[in-house]
Protein 1
Amino acid sequence: MSEVTSRTRVFALLGDPVSHSLSPTIQNAAMADMEMDGVYVALRAGTEEMVGFIRGLARSGGGGNITLPHKEKAATVLDVSSPAVKRTGACNTFWEADGKINGDNTDVAGFARALEAFLGGPPEGLSVLVLGAGGAARAGLVALIDGGVEEVHLLNRSRDRARVVARRIGGAKVRVLDSAREVDGKAFDLVVNATRLGLQPDDPLPLDLRRLARAGGVVDVVCRAGSTPFVDLARTLGIRATDGSEMLVQQGAVAFERWWGRGPSLRVMRAALERRLRR
Ligand code: NAP
């Protein structure tokens, strides 16, 4: 990082917890690479502090990202919401433009880009099983539907939450499953883990893939050192699989573009992430 001065723009990840976050690593590496006068930090924030930080950071010429558990509340603080925020009801990126606090949900584009890289094209016509109904699942759903999937089966621990998400985003293409028993013996072109299971070492699997007749591919949004247990299981079963690393880089790249008006080097972001995960 170059010298921090009174002109340096300050960006922050706001959430609780944030100590495990990888965003400072990729954003600071990208800013240093492009010689941008900015610094990116992670701040643990309760709801009230988060609202204050958004206003303060944006008005001082900086911005940031929002993570658990504040993405929905953050969407209510904005003056200008992107289409992705409006559709998901969640904001993960904020900045100021023309005196107004702007927000986007770059998880949508991040998921879409990472998925396209994994599939080698859009998910057109696919039958998809999505596990989870939180922020990541909402972003994934918007990306899948915009990508032209045939149908999405949505399975979540809390069925009511899944119903709300399906109503808001999915329309006729999304079917909410009552229990995991409903997937027994079924075939899917793609299975997406959008729960938080896999982040902690002692987490159970989000789903035993052996229950399915077929999974054409597996995408896990969780990102941690090594691969995730869900990705490991898929690969053991001979299923192509990827974890959340590329989505993390892609959502970060879109956020970077919102703040700086030009995109970062994906290569630099990926290399910084890899170094950090190896440590
Ligand atoms: P969230 O809004 O809190 O949602 C968490 C989801 O996990 C919900 O569906 C929840 O089910 C489910 N869940 C939690 N504990 C569970 C358990 N013990 N058993 C079954 N289901 C459980 O979180 P989020 O923002 O969607 O984040 C989810 C994951 O995605 C996190 O690991 C996050 O780091 C990751 N993520 C990655 C990226 C990336 O760029 N790679 C971006 C965003 C998020 P209920 O609804 O029943 O509580």
Protein 2
Amino acid sequence: MKTVLITGATGSVGGHLRRELAGRYKLRLSDRRPVKGLSRSEKFMRGDIAKMADALRITKGVDAIVHLGGYSVEGPWDAILQANIIGCYNVFEAARRNGVKRVLFATSNHAAGFYRRDETIDHRACPRPDGRYGVSKAFGEALGSLYSDKYGMEVFCMRIGNVDVRPVDRRRLSIWLSPRDLAQLVTLGIEHPQLRFEIVYGVSGNTRSWYDNSNAVRLGYRPQDDAEAFAAEVLARDKPEDPVAAKYQGGAFCVLEDLPNPAAPTPGRRAGARRRASAAGGRGQARSG
Ligand code: 15L
């Protein structure tokens, strides 16, 4: 049985994945905080990926890494820098030094959150991050590409939408990923015999999807769930979104600011911010190859 490291194992995606993968792999779970309720096929190894020594220790001797660890929403630059830039680099570099070939990287829809909702994007879509968090995910994708091309590592980047037992709002109807579809995608990323570098969307087979996920399908992904089954109940309690957030796939992340933002859509500035956002929406949408 393969030994698979899950970084950031105490997070909610880690929790769903542990449940779904139970018995399929020996799981080495790592995080800064202890993981609760270990099963017999799970081991916990404490580690802070912002420290290279820890990254080297937790990645030693595993067959594959599912890298979920890091700061998982928009936030202060220093936190993102430590966890998602330095931490992500340390995980890839430690994998290389330890001879771990396969890395599954949990990137995010927010690496491309500034595409409009009336656009359909595929795995070739150029990153259009909607915040510093999104930039850090685009960085991880670029790093994975480098480690694949230069060192022959096998890197599977999953631009995850929102993992939950059910979609929670209108935006999530387009980007929802059910726990069992998450597990299918991760298993595919671990087991596929011929991976070099791939970007796929971590979403279920949602009727309202903004993604052409044909690259995942080409590799064998067959999602079992569709958020549409929850659409009526979600829309019945739907609240209006900020107009800028409503225009873009990244939603509120497109307007969230940790710092004072001169472009924030406050009443006096809303028109200018809209013009800027609309100009951004007019850019070419995808690069080829
Ligand atoms: C993400 O990337 C976050 O990690 C998650 O917490 C959600 O906010 C999700 O995106 C989303 O877009 O709903």
